[in-house]
Amino acid sequence: MQLRLPVWMGIAALVLSACASLQPVETGQKMIGSPQSAVSDTFGKPTETHQLADGTLRWIYSKQPYGYDVYAADFDGSGKLIAFRQMLTEAEIYKAQPNTWTKRDVMERWGMPREPIQYYPLMKREAWSYRMYLPGYVPAHFSAYFDDNGVLDRTMIIMDTYGADRSRSK
């Protein structure tokens, strides 16, 4: 029995979709040089888009608040994918520049937080929080603290000692 072209195309799309959901970084990096339409077909509609100062267009794919991932797809001026990576890593977090970055800089890197924004009146600081994994798949929370002028004051990573097992009785 011979399969027709539309069936093969459907199977190929299904396999690509499975790869994108199981290994998004690897899939995205293999797509470097592809047009925006191919990235959209593979990963769907981004949760946010940002035009960066250097002309790069960044698409954010956030799995927050329940997931632990924020992916960035960066496109050059011609609409070709130039980078795809997981943004909630220690290496990316250490690029944050306290006393220089603003809320916009943090938003362009990790997207708007999907956890409730907290304000600590005694510190006079607003905190944006993101769930992440530390190496070894240790659940943690990354927080960015802003002063009343919206300037990044500090960042903090706190291990989540309960992790994803909060519903289990102790």
Task: Give the topology, please.
Layout: H1 5-22, H2 24-30, H3 36-43, E1 48-51, E2 57-62, E3 70-75, E4 81-86, H4 90-93, H5 103-110, E5 118-120, E6 125-134, E7 138-146, E8 152-159
Antiparallel strand pairs: 1-2, 2-3, 3-4, 5-6, 6-7, 7-8
Q: Could you please describe the fold and organization of this structure?
A:
Residues 1-20 form the signal peptide. This is Transmembrane protein. Keywords: Plasmid, Signal. The structure is a single chain. This protein has two domains: 5-86, Beta-lactamase Inhibitory Protein, Chain:B, domain 1; 90-159, Beta-lactamase Inhibitory Protein, Chain:B, domain 1 (2-Layer Sandwich), CATH 3.30.1450. Helix content is 26%, strand content 31%. The strands form two sheets. The chain has a four-stranded antiparallel beta sheet, with helices on both faces. The chain has helices at residues 5-22, 24-30, 36-43, 90-93, 103-110; strands spanning 48-51, 57-62, 70-75, 81-86, 118-120, 125-134, 138-146, 152-159. It is α+β, with helices and mostly antiparallel strands and 170 residues long. The radius of gyration is 19 Å and the shape is globular. The model is unreliable at 14-19 and 166-170 (pLDDT under 50).
